[in-house]
Specification:
46% of the residues lie in helices and 7% in strands. By secondary structure, the protein is mostly helical. It has a two-stranded parallel ribbon with strand order 1-2. The longest helix has 14 residues. The chain is globular.
């Protein structure tokens, strides 16, 4: 995954007009665990749903440390397909 792809996924995650509630991103569950099998093929929408779930605060702000962590994991473990 490239930086541009991650930035695009983050843009989607930030857009509250796009519903990500029905996105099945279960293939990404446990991605931070050492036993996670990778590389995993996923879509930008699946990554955006993960970002929104993991990094957005309830009041709408963003956890920048967790966002950096997801970016690091995604660059190593995810292959984006669209």
């Amino acid at each position: 995954m490239t930086k541009n792809e991650f930035n695009r996924a983050f843009e989607i995650a930030q857009n509250n007009n796009i519903s990500l509630l029905d996105v099945d991103n279960s293939v990404l569950y446990g991605c931070a665990l050492p036993e996670f099998k990778y590389p995993v093929h996923c879509t930008i929408i699946q990554l955006a749903a993960l970002i929104r779930w993991q990094c957005q605060y309830l009041f709408g702000g963003w956890d920048s440390e967790e966002l950096d962590s997801i970016a690091f994991i995604a660059k190593k473990k995810f292959i984006l397909v669209d």
